[in-house]
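look at this record:
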Amino acid sequence: MENQDPSQTKQIPTNKELGIWPALIPVFALIAMLAFNVFVFGDDSLSGSNQFVLLLGGAVAAIVGYFNNVEYDKMIDEVAGNIQSTAGAILILLMVGALAGTWLISGIIPTMIYYGLQILNPTIFLAACVIICAVISVATGSSWTTSATVGIALIGIAEALGISVGMTAGAILSGAYFGDKLSPLSDTTNLAPAMAGTDLFTHIRYMTLTTVPTVTITLIIFVIIGLNLDTSGTTDTSAILASIENSFRISPWLFLVPIIVIALIVKKTSPLIALLLGTLLGAAAALFFQPEIVAQIAGTTNLDFVSGYRGVMQAITVETAVETDNENLNDLFSAGGMAGMLGTIWLIICAMVFGGIMEAIGALARISKALLNLFHTTFGLFASTVFSCLALNATASDQYLAIVVPGKMFAKAYRDKGLAPENLSRALEDSGTVTSVLIPWNTCGAYHSGVLGVPTLSYAGYAFFNYLSPFMTLLFAAFSIKIKELSESPKTQTA
């Protein structure tokens, strides 16, 4: 072999390990840009501008990588791998949208709401508010919708009974966020496992370990408060119940569909299979129980094979609404279908771009190393996750970002610590999702305060579930209660 001319030899640049401050530059830049973006756009920031800001954060990370001699192709390959790892989560999100559509037009969701409202009792009004809002939020997957519909009605009832609206709003939001956390229809419940690297139903099962004790304590507190309150008047929900009955055929037989889906979840059936079956059963129930609604959605008065197919497919794929004679219920009885999930999917893809570039330039590894050096214990890692979620809720003012950014930042740290990804996804929800409503300038805090007509600081002290949840997850970590190790869950070792 001939010797090469030294003048023709090209020096291959090598990249060295990032220092902690260069590694944090993209994180600080992202938080600053997101905070300003939310300030400018408010609630509309999720319509696309936040997603683009995540791409800008990725661009900042790429610039840091460029100065550290990280190749462009390496960054793109890491982004592609990150996006590929979320394929399952994206498909599940699409199926969740489809299921929400058929469960609406079949009357399953309205039936849950109908029977939930009937447990209202003046003696245990506050506890009943928690239970009703929990049922409705599980059924709809949305704390926002629950607050804007039944929440408003409950505030009105509280005023008629002479009960503090601050207490009532705290009870409403405690129940609404319990349902939001555990519902497979919730976008945050799908987002957290997607960021952590586990699957939807594993996340939900693992989250019940901290969520059920927290809501139990919350109910006990509200029962004690309620028993010591003087109430007057009645809790009249007859108008709402009549409107639901006039719009849907209500039947307890409709509970069979969610019962079957829950049974499949318990038996650890693949989430996609369970959700697909739930969607198809919901479609069948719609054709049997609500033929008039299906025909109406199809734009006709008579139901036949073609109009039935059209109506069901409309509910599965695009936004669907069932009008009632009660204006307050109309927002409740609408679903976005698969198209309604595209905003969350867009957010996930843009988050994967930011996370992929951060991973490629070695920033996530450097931050994880610093965290592991700073927090030598499992509790320390959980505490840093909770603190990061709280900090992002306060600075970036958005619960989605309080899940996305810490989710990507801490995923490797949990793996390096030998912890299963469901530990991270649970910590993200226990701190990122539920505390957003306690911060007045957060989009969630501003929304719920405006909808319910109750200042954030008036209900924050009574939203027991929301501020007890992060303490519960830290309590479990401090005493090593149900902290799953990575070796115990080989199926969830993807990031």
Q: What stands out?
A: The chain has two domains: 20-84+341-492, 89-339. The first strand starts at residue 320 and ends at 321. The radius of gyration is 24 Å. The beta strands are 320-321, 334-335.
